[in-house]
Structure formats: C-alpha cells, structure tokens
Amino acid sequence: MTLRAFIIGLLSVAVLCSVVYFNDYVLRQTPLIGSHVPVGVYGTALLFLITVNPLLHRFRPGWALTAPELALILSMTGVACAIPGAGLMKQFGPTLMMPHHHLKTLPGWHEYEVLNLVPKHLLADPGENQEALGGFIQGLERPAKPFSLSDIPWSSWTSALAFWIPLILVLWVALLTLSFIFHKQWSENEQVAYPIIQIINSLLPGADGKISPVIRNRYFLIGAGLVFLIHINNFAVTQFPDLIEIKIRIDLRKLLQVFPREFEEGGGMGGLLNFRMHFLVIGIAYFLSRDVGLSLAVGPVLYGFVGGILGIYGISVRGTGIYEYNFFLVFGAYLGLFVAILYAGRHFYAQVVHNAFLGSRTKRANSPEPIWAARIFLASVLIFILLLASTGLDWQLAVIYTSILFITFTVMSRILAETGFFTLQPPGSEAGILLGIFGAQRLGPQVIAQMGLFTSVLRLFPREALMPYIVNGLKLLENRRVALGKGALCFGAALIFGLMVALPVTFYWQYARGTEVMHSSALGSHSRIPFDYALQVRQWLEAQGLLAGAENLQGWARFLPLSPSPSHMFSLFLAFSLVLLFAWIRLRYPRFPLHPVLFAIWIAGASMRVALSFFLGFLIRELILKFGGHSAYERARPLMIGLASGELLAAAILCLFGFAQYLITGTGPRYYSILPW
C-alpha cells in the first residue's frame, strides 16, 4: 500500500460520488452502482487495465499502478458505492423533505397530523421558506439564474443533518468492524469462495507489473469480445431502429396460459419466464460450488410453483403492505442463516469475544485486529442504540431494531461472499417484522413511524448496502497482501470523504432540477412508507378502541402480553426451520445438492430475473467437469471471466458515451440497460 494509491483512491471516490446521481437521474443510463458489482468501479477499472495501465508500464514503468495499489483503489471506491446512490443519498433527501409535501396533499395525513408521530429534528424543516420544499420538488435552476451550492436552503436541513450524520457514521463504524471479524472467519477458516473477487483479482496485473495473463488469454478475448459486441450492437439498435438486434431475451410467458391466472399472480412466474441472458451472472455461476449454483437456479422456480399452486386455491403467500408474508419468510431464512453462520464459526467468535473483553484465554491469542474490531464494534453499537433511544424509541425496541438490522447486513454479506448474488434486495422492514411479532396494540403508530423512518434512510435499498462492499474489499486486499488493518482505515477515510462530496452534490441536483423531474419515486411510495403504515395502524387501533392503550405503553410493558400474528409467525418459523434443516443435512451428507441459501433468495424479484442465467452457468460448469475434467475446467476459466468482463466493459463504455453525448448535444442517449438491478 502506497500514499499514491491512497490519494488516487480518494480522488476516485470523489469522482464516483460526484457523477452517480447525474448519471442515474439526469442521463438516466445504466446505474453506475445499482448492485454489489458496480459498473462505475469494476467496469472503468477493467477499461483502465486494458488500455491505460499497459501503456504506462511500457513507456513509464514507474507510473504504472501495481496490483496491490489497484486493489486498494478498487476497494476504497467500492466501499464508497454505499453512499451516492440507492445505498443512502437517493432516498435521504426525499425521505426527510417530501413528508411535508404529502402533509399538504393527503387529507388523511393532515387530519391525523402524522408528522407529529416523529420528533421534529428527524425531518427537514422547510418552515416559511418556500424554496426549501417547493424548490426541492420543482427545482430552482432557471436559464437566466445559474444555480450554485450556496442557493441550497441549508438552514432547513441543519437540525436533521445534526442527527442523521452522526447516526450514519456510527453505523458505518459498526459495520466496518463487524465485517473485519466475520471476514477473517469466512476467508481463512471456512475458505468461502468470494466469486466476484476471484474474477476481479484475476484481472489485476501480474507480479511483473504486466497486463494480466488472463486478459491476454485468447479465450478471454473471445468471450469478452463477443459479449461486448452484442451489447454495443443492441445499444445501437435503440438509437437506430433499422439495425438488427441480437436477441438475448427469451419470452416464455405464453407457457403460463395453460395455468389459471391465479397461478402466475401467486408465484410471480412471469418474471422468471421473461428471460434475459446476463453474461456477468453466467460467469459468476461458473465459480460456484455445485450446491450453491443449483440452489440459486431452482430456488425462484420452486417458489414460483409453490406460490402459484397456493394461489390457485386462493391462498396468497404475499399478503398486503407491511404485513406481507414474504417479509417473514425472508427474515426467517435470514435468521436461520445467521444462526448457521455463528455455529460454523463458534470457536473463533468465542475466542475473539473472550480475548477482547475478558483477557486472553490462551497463550496463543488472536491477532490484535479482530480483538480491537470487537471492542470498537461494541462501543459503536451502544452509541447507535443510544442515538435511536434519544428520539423517544424505547431502548428495548432500539436494541431489537439494531439486532435485526445487523443480522440482515451480515447475512447479505455472507450470501454475496459465498454466492456472488450481487443484486440481492431482501423485502421487508424492521417495523413490519416487529409489528408481526408484537402486534399493533403493543407498538402503536409512533413506533411504526419512527422505525419506518430509520429503515427508509438506512436500508431502503439494501442492494447497495455497505457491509457487502466492505467484505469484498477486504478479500481483494487480502489476495494482494495488503495489510487489512491499514485497509480498514482507508475504508473509513473513503466513507467520510465520500459523504462530504456526495451530500452537497446530490442536494445540488435535487434542488437545481427538482425531484419531480429527476425521479418520481420521491413523490411516490418511498417517502410515504413510514407514515402511511403508521396511519394504517392508527386507524385500525382507533376502530378497535385500542389506540389510547397502545400510545401509553412504554418499555417492558410492550412485551407482555404479546399478540403476534399466527400466520406470519408460522411463515417466519417455517423458513427458519427449513434453513436449519438444510444446514444440518449438509453437515451430515456433504454431497447433498442444495444449499440453505435457497430460502433466502427464492422470493426476491431480482432472483427471478437472474435464475436462468445462474442455471446456464451451473450447467456449463457441470458439463465441462463431467466431460473434460478439472483441466478443462481450468482452461475454460478465462472464457467465463471474459463473459463477465465483456458485460462490465460494455456498460462502462456506454456510460462514458452517454456523458460525452450530453456534453456535446445537451441530451443523453436513449435508455439501454445491461446489468440486472
């Protein structure tokens, strides 16, 4: 690790955080982030590795970046991907400002004064400043009046930022230290695959500093070139319709006509059968174990059939609103996987805890990094809980909310590390889960509104959550022998610097162009979710005559007696039991063909979109191993890396083309999506 790499890493973070919102909501191109395989990082890095770095190595060898330097730069920029897009800034402003707009336009909100359910400092405060709210919706930029950062009504955001920024920073510290602990167990003791990092690591320069042997391999060039040309051609078709499109989408939804309409509605099989080949997914699937690859392929199919058959008989597995059964099926699976994760590493985690808080149990103690990570994690979690409790939320509920939040992020990170499933978007919310466990009369509308607001800001779109980026970044540093402790400090610097850049830049575009023009979700359900659900709970309690009692409950009084929803609890414990059952079977019978991750991914819409691509990658891998053996499998690796790289490269180049077209013509190209998200 060098100072040069650290500085370039920070500059890369600044560029990324400056352009993501512009790319996604002004140009409306393929998202630069969008998932845990961000085009803006890996795609542009691949372009650099193919063009710029080899030239530097040839003509100015001292200027060329080495593999460890590139690993640090990519990891720092990757971690910062949690900031400018859907990980935080996309919903941050709308969630805190738009409720004031809804209060004026929705009669139910005004009648029940729903904004009084949360402390005033949790939301932006437009006050009498018409530009604070009106400008946020319609934009303040005018042809004769250039807009600048100083024109943003910062005074309306002061109190909200004073609460949310410390909360976010403390959460990031906790996730960073927790990632450090889990990564050491997963990478060193369990030898988890990290398939995405296998691909990225293989593209970095060799020990001699020259271009990677994989990139020079003819099979790589064939795979990458083929996929690249397909996407460039199909993008050209969107601009010039007379050209011939190369079909990579197969619509098999007509097969559903033999079933009743309720079958498709119950299981969502339409999304599965409207199949598009995602070459990145096919390439990742090649590096997965047999049970993982098969589970990712058959999980959504299994859910589609089960949900469809139940739908025919009038039984919905979806539910409605905050009470969707899907939420509890997914959380039950996540809870089961979390238990399995702790069990698999129980000796290591117990030793870390003992050495961190009770002193070394043996002469051969753990390395100091996990020990200090555990101490910092505990301190940051306590501060996080205190900040939540300072808003009036019972500390007991703050502890439970925090636990669910960290369970979700930990399991997502493990799924990414083991499966490479980079578009994971688990449905549900902490408020919904607790509502099903406690019952509406034990929580009341105020708790629902507060927890819903926390979730809307901190994890509304977990497909860009921070912890999976950190875990992948640590693995890349480890592969290139970069000290993880120093790397973690660089990650912290990248996050702070990224927030300093992304927050004013995002506010600039939102106030300059207006969120009404930029993205309609700001005026739609996303910024209404916490208060809409709280209003539903309030109206139900009021109709039952239970509102006064629910509003007066505090602390331990909420716990007895609980009034959980039996059907939702059944969904939770069913998924929890199935995960533990499959985990136990895999321990007893190592050749068992399915992995318990099946139950964590089988519901998400993203799983439907990529299931058949995972199946193709799985099928290619199995056929090569069966008929060619391990040597053929190794020879085909560059080809599969090429398929994945070609898609990333095409996405990056088309984004750059969109920027260039906008600078020249003032308009962006027509939308063409490459990666699933």
Overview of the molecule:
It is a single chain. The protein has 677 residues and is mainly alpha-helical. The protein contains 29 helices and 2 strands. The protein has a two-stranded antiparallel ribbon. Helix 7 (130-138) crosses helix 23 (484-513). The protein is globular and about 75 Å long. The mean pLDDT is 89.
List the keywords:
677 residues; mainly alpha; 1% strand
Write a brief caption for the model:
With 677 residues, this protein is an all-alpha fold.
Q: What's the gyration radius in Å?
A: 25 Å
What is the SS-derived class?
Answer: mainly alpha
The backbone outline, from C-alpha atoms, is globular
Could you give the distance between the termini?
33 Å
Strand order of the largest sheet: 1-2
Low-confidence stretches: none
Strand content: under 5%
Q: Could you estimate the helical fraction of the residues in percent? A: 55-70%
Major beta-sheet overview: 2 strands, antiparallel
